[in-house]
């Protein structure tokens, strides 16, 4: 019987001439020659049944010789003959795709695989609309990929040989050879035992085929929506404005090259403000090491190390476990300066008599804890008093138990207060040294001894005379 061939879409469709009631098949081939499907139709009445040989012969005449699905064809023919139901779209031949060969290479994994390009400049950053800001806190978004020391950045992929494929017409499809990007270790990254690892914590940088880690984060356009909050394990170097409401946390040292308008700054190491440091409402700057700035204004700053300023500390609250150094000409005007190891400045207070407090020789952290404990003790004493009244009016086991517990807790807090008071004074030799003048309105405390300045005076030095129980002024 002659064949009939017709095009279907961009593929081909084949069928045999057949008697009217005989079972028959129609075969269609995908354009890429990798798949053939068949519609199998059952016999009608006394027509000849649909035989697998008939289908396979049809495929052979169509040139389909590879990847025949013999078992599926047999089952479909049986179903057509027994159940007299058509089977449509049956896969009757499937080609084998070639498997490309892959050379040995190092591929990125984890954070490195998803590493974004470097941060865009503030000018290039998209403006966030009011609607977007309502849905997403863009300050939490960051373009930086921060990795930990020892973190795996990439792994060696062994060579994988390829294999040729074949389409349903028997045509061999040669295997290709892939050329995947392979990465190598850059600065602060090592390759050992088939693994790329970060040698230090820091910012991940992928340039070309090199993977590096910069232990310092350098921000040339300040901190804002283009950077998000900054939380970095190493050193930070910032040029430009830190926008209001953005956090900057550094696990190392931090340098701010322009005036820092502080919202939430935390530095584990040393803080350096090349210009000045200005506070924002309830903002707090926390420093694990020393802090230096040209000036400090309307700011709350707590540091474990020394605090150094060039020109002035104005209307600020500064706490340090070290010294406050303002040099021969630096001024301290207004606010409260608490320095465990003493203070040196040029001018203390001003001619207007602005209230200025200097506290030296005591540990501010102990004082803060002492204040908190005393507040708790006051509340607990009030509760104990109420329980005593209740025990008289309505005595009972539960009230007595609560009263006993309150008294025990009160005693524990009293003992804690006594311990903290003993630890409060850390340097009885701390001095407050004024290189030019001290003005009325200034209060100097050394180890809780207090002296109020009522008259202007020149260069002087305040120290504690413990035996006399007072502060001595040396001129």
Descriptive notes:
With 475 residues, the protein is of the alpha/beta class. It folds into four domains: 3-94, no CATH class; 105-214, no CATH class; 219-365 and 427-474, no CATH class; 366-424. It is 19% helix and 39% strand. It is built from six helices and 36 strands. It has a 21-stranded mixed sheet that branches. A hairpin with a 2-residue loop joins strand 12 (189-192) and strand 13. Helix 5 packs antiparallel against helix 6 (397-424). The relative contact order is 0.06.
Alpha carbon gap, first and last residue: 127 Å
- Summed up, the helix count is 6
Question: What is the helix fraction of residues, given as a range?
Answer: 10-25%
Instruction: Characterize the largest beta sheet: strand count, sense, and whether it forms a barrel.
Output: 21 strands, mixed
**For the CA atoms, what is the radius of gyration?**
41 Å
Mean pLDDT: 89
Shape: elongated
Unreliable parts: 1-10, 116-126
Q: Based on DSSP secondary structure assignment, what is the total number of beta strands?
A: 36
Q: Which percent band covers the strand fraction?
A: 35-45%
How many domains, in number, for the residues?
4
SSE-based structural type: alpha/beta
